Each structure stands twice: as structure tokens, then as C-alpha cells.
Amino acid sequence: MTLLNGIGVCPGIAVGPLVRMPDPVPEPSAGPGQVTDKNAERSRISPAMEAVAAELRARAEKAKAETRAVLEATSYMAVDPGMMDLAITGVVERNLSAARAVFEAANTFRDMLAAAGGYIGARVADIEDVRDRIVAAVLGVPMPGIPDPGHPFILVARDLAPADTATVDPEKVLGFVTTEGGPTSHTAILARTLGVPAVVATEGALSLKEGTTVVLDGGAGTLNAAPTDAEVQDAEKRMAARRGAKKTWSGEGATSDGRRILLLANVGDPKSAKAGADAGAEGVGLFRTEFLFLDSANEPTVAEQEEAYAGVFAAFPDGRKVVVRTLDAGADKPLAFLDQGDEPNPALGVRGVRVAFEDSGILDRQLQAIARAAERSSSDVWVMAPMIALASEAEWFSGKVREHGLKTPGVMVEVPAAALNAEQILGVTEFASIGTNDLAQYTLAADRMAGPLAALNDPWQPALLKLIGFTGDAGEKRGKTVGVCGEAASDPVLAVVLVGLGVTSLSMSSRAIADVGELLRTVSYDDCKRLAQVALDAGEAQAAKAAVRAELPQLDELGL
Ligand code: PEP
Ligand code: MG
Q1: Mean pLDDT across the chain, nearest whole number?
Q2: Which of 97, 177, 377, 528 has the greatest CB tally within 10 Å of its CB?
Q3: Given 10, 151, 404, 485, the catalytic residue
Q4: Active-site residue, 186 included
């Protein structure tokens, strides 16, 4: 067995041949005087465009209705006569290479689309994709994007860009392994959304031969690059076990001895809220409201916000809990309508609730919209602030929430100071929800977006677990709810540890709910506390995870 270690970001086993993600198509050189035979050069353009259009049409025929329309529209774009003329002119009049001429012609069209704005402007990414495909066809290099070898496979990549992730078909991609990326990278988020086993930051994975059969273990965070027949059979058994276990999920989170742990969904809009409800979520533990407005040039009106919030509440009626987080703008989530100026270090700047301290207008309008939507619905609406550091901030925010007639204000614990002072903070607010993504980056002083620092951001880091334990203890003392809504809660084994640290609700990607629920009901609360201590006593993240996993033989049966 040749075992590569990485960071598991979505549990489950996958067995299959390795297929490599092609490198991005390079920008063709703009150097002058590249062409000696203009006729030969210009004659390369139209066949390349035709070939790309034909490939897109073929994919459209096999695709489901929604994707089919997009692929068909894109196939017309690939043979647009205006773009072809412009590219040919580039060769004939400016002496550009065919690849460069196509690149520039497509960019001219892209800029025109972008200027049109609205729905047409949203096609910018499509034209860039078409551009790169035609350039690849001209240069004779592999097409960009997720490969389609015609059989299921395990995808190995440096990392995945957001644009790649839209075209992943979970029927074909059995698992992901990347050499870069971290626990909150796009690959990790996509894998959890699709429920596909994934391991990131796996050094050496790109040197493996294409077509090799490998076993990927998203729970343990390993890639077995040379499995024996027995290991392949064992992996297949575990995959089947997981499929079976998922079907029996009852929908109510609890330990084996009946300690209730609410299992909630992280959502960003009405559609994901509905998916959460369908996956058996008992409510919403984190509604990231800024996701609705990432593309808005102007602040949405109170009425627009009210509609959007009401859409999410509608997925969880009849007193079910929906925790709304007020806008978390800044750093990794910039909002166009909120000019935050140039900050030398945005992650440590005026982000999250801090935006409202100077001028609370945006927060007041948002709370007004949440209150109106809550009034129209039968959900139990809670409201929390991101990036709280001090008890006085928590008190100020709680006052604001109550002023708007909303009864349950709370805070996110994502700054170490808030965890250390959780008892004081929980004295002035109703609940806390731990955001492990930010709490990890601030505790370990490691940018959550920085691939090379992925291991520091591993939510199994014992220092992070200690801060979670402080917050859990404070919740017990104050008799207040302490949840986790960061990605840590999506890892079923870590979820057991979090419960042992005093956490009373877990909010996660919808796909993770059944796995977390199934494992949780096999352990008692005392087990959880004992395993939390095992993790705290381990020196570092990998050791903590391995030590806890070794104590849970049922993971095999559950395919985790
Ligand atoms: C977190 O920081 O853990 C969190 C849940 O918030 P976000 O990932 O949106 O910053
Ligand atoms: Mg956060």
C-alpha cells in the first residue's frame, strides 16, 4: 500500500481510476510578427471553432434539460460569425497567431456582453470557457474543464475553480483529490454540496499515473495509490455500507443515550433551504444572508430582502428554527454596494458586524426586513451577528435585534477573544454559534484562503478544539445554546468530539446531515466526552483525528 496523506473534507470511500484535470489553457503570446503564412494561419480558426461547437452540441444531447439549454446556447457562441470574422481580421491585418487572434476576438465579445449587464452580462464566464476551448483546439492541447473519459473516475487536480465546479456530474466523479486547497476551499465546498468523498492538500497526488486504480478515504484524509485486491474489495464493501446507512436516517439528532443535538443546515437562499429540508435538516443553523447579494450593485431594498428571507423561512415552517446571520461583508465575501476602501489586511479589518458600528443603517434595514419576513412565517427566527469580539458588542447587537421586535439575538464565535470570554458574552445574549472556519484562521494565524496553510486550518487542531470547549462550558454554565456552524460540523467524527465539548447543535452542508446523524446515534454522551478528551490530548490535528477514529470501529460499517 502506498498511502498519501491530505485533509479529508468530505467523508466516504471511493474506488476507481484516477483522471487528471487538464492544466488551464495558457494565454497565447501577443508577440508581434508571429505569422509567416497568413493563409495557413487563418484557415486554422474555423475548424477549431466548428470542432468546439460540435463537442458542446454532443454534450448537450446527453445532458439534463437545465444544462442542455446552456450547452446549446454556448455551442452557438462557439461559431459566432462576428467572432470568427474578428479573429480572421486579427491574423490578416495584425499578423497575430490564430490562437492569439481567437483569444482577443473572444475577449472583445466578452467585454461587450459584460457592458450589457443583467442576464447577458452573466454569460461572461461562458464566453471565456468557449474562448479557452477554441484556443486549446487551435493549439492541440487538452480541452479545459472537468474531463469526460466516458466512465466514472476519481478526479485529481491542483485545485478546482468555481467555474469548474458547476459542471461536475456526481454520477461520474466518484471522488476528488487535490494537491492544493484547504478545508474551506471551493473544492471542499463543492464536494460537501455533492456529497462526494474528497481529500485536499494531498502532496504527491499529481505525480500518480493516469488510470491507476486508487482508494480515496475522505473520512481518514488518505489516498491509497496502490491498493491490493483485498483493499479494493474492502473499500467497495464500505461504499455499499454507506449507501445503505444513508437510506435509514430518521431525521432527529441524538446520541445513543438520548441527548438531543439539533442537526441543522447551512443555507444561502430559498433553494438551498429547500434542499436542507429534503435532506432531513431540523432547521437552519446558518443562513448566510450575504450570499443573496454578492452580485448586487446596490443595496437591496427592504422589500426585496423581506421576500428573500421569507423564501428561506417557508422551507422550515411550524416553529422550526432558522438562524439568520446578518450581513458578513468583507475579506473573503466583498459586497459591491459596500465600499470598504483599501484595507491592508481585510480579514483583520472592518468586516462582519464591525461595518455597522460607524453607521448602523444597513443593519437596521436588514433587521427590519428579517422582522417583517418573520412575522409572515411560522418559523422560529433567531438572529446572530458575525465577527463579535467583545461582550459590549454582543450587548449592542442584542439591543438592536430586540428593538426590531425579534426575540432571540445571538452571536457567532469566530474570534478567539469571543471564545475566551464566552461566559461574559452569553450573559448579554441568548445563544452562540461557533464559526470554526474563521475561528481556525484567527487562532492559528493562517489565512483560510491560503492553500499552503491548509494544515493549520484543519478543524481538528487541538488549539481550536480547546476554544470550542471554553465556549461549550460557558453555554452549560449560562444554560444557553452553543452551536457549531463552521465546516467542522460536517465531519461526522469531529461532530462527535464537538458534542463532547458541550456543543448542543450542529449546522452543516445538507448532504452531511445523514452521516453525522447516523454516527451520533451510535455513541453515548459519555463516549463523546471521552473522545473529546482524546482529541484534546493529541498533539496535532492529524494525530487527534487518527486517535479518535481508532476508537470508533463502527466507522467501517457506516462506510465513513
Ligand atoms: C465560519 O467562519 O466558520 C462561518 C460559518 O462563517 P463563514 O464561513 O461564512 O465565514
Ligand atoms: Mg465566518
Answers
A1: 91
A2: 177
A3: 485
A4: yes
